[in-house]
Amino acid sequence: MRAVVYTETGPSSVLQLVEREVPQPSPGEVLVRVVRAGVNPTDWKFRAGMMSGHDEVAPGQDGAGVVEALGEGVTGFEIGDHVWLLLAQHGRPYGTAVEYTVQPTARVAKLPAGASFDLGAALGVPFVTAHRLLTSGDVARLAPGALAGHTVLVAGGAGAVGNAAIQLARWAGATVVTTVSGPEKAALATAAGAHRVVTYTEGDPAEAILAIAPDGVDLVAEVAPAQNIGLDLAVTRIGGTIGIYANNGGDELTVPLRATFSRNLRFQFVILYTLDPALLRAAVEDITAAIEDGAVRIGGDAGLPLHRFPLEETAAAHDAVEGGAVGKVLLDVDPTL
């Protein structure tokens, strides 16, 4: 099989296209023929040196494809099933930048009928992260009406996680407000389904948000806490939650204590790699339900433009993500499907 691998961390030039044997599933594992793979910031950060520990690594946490073989004891899947993958490279040497990957069943989920491989490859990191952000407050599971009466503020609504948070929050019944830097990203956030878009480079964003939610927002999905902590504290209601999933714009977060504890605020820091397996299962189930309801979309009409690269150009795909490509970067591992 073809695989893109690296044997040392560094710039994208360490990635190489090689031939490797098709792996075979062990007990409890599924062999998946990868059709499409998603590329996320975590992929290039691991490759650049954030994570090592294997002699050879094929990057990629997200993907979608077809079940080719089942390991001993596997139930709930059949050969030929269309599936999506999450956390495929976490703790393992081979992720989704390969033609075949073996994964434990907990990291494999069935694609609902009619869902494309493109959609499946776009789900993992962005949508599972968004699900955890949205369930870190007063609501433990997402479903239609679960967030009815809630106002959710999504910082950076044009990003992949922001897009996912807008779509899932709207499906669950929330009023969704998002902040963006300018008109192009405002158009993307609106296409994703945001009810109101606030351009934070114009006027006073806190005033604009509080005009929409006078008592404050119930939950914030925050991508740049170091920069936005003042705004978040100003617009989050008493007893609200600030969910943080990235460190865009700074690695140090300074929190004014009195202004924070006097409002009984909660902070929820989110990273998928140490998330409780029960929370991952809940995310997969709820995301699947949202797909079945037609609430999850990708492409320009959904505010998530697609950028495609063949497997042999994985390095260019990594560079695109690192360079801030707006939308979703995909690898066409099997461009015939």
UniProtKB/TrEMBL annotation:
InterPro entries given for it?
ADH-like_C (IPR013149), ADH-like_N (IPR013154), ER (IPR020843), GroES-like_sf (IPR011032), NAD(P)-bd_dom_sf (IPR036291), Zinc-ADH_QOR/CCCR (IPR051603)
Kindly state which keywords UniProt assigns to this record, in alphabetical order. Answer: NADP
- Top-rank taxon of the source lineage equals Bacteria
Q: Give the Enoyl reductase (ER) domain ranges.
A: 10-331
Q: What is this protein called?
A: NADPH:quinone reductase
Organism of provenance: Nocardioides fonticola
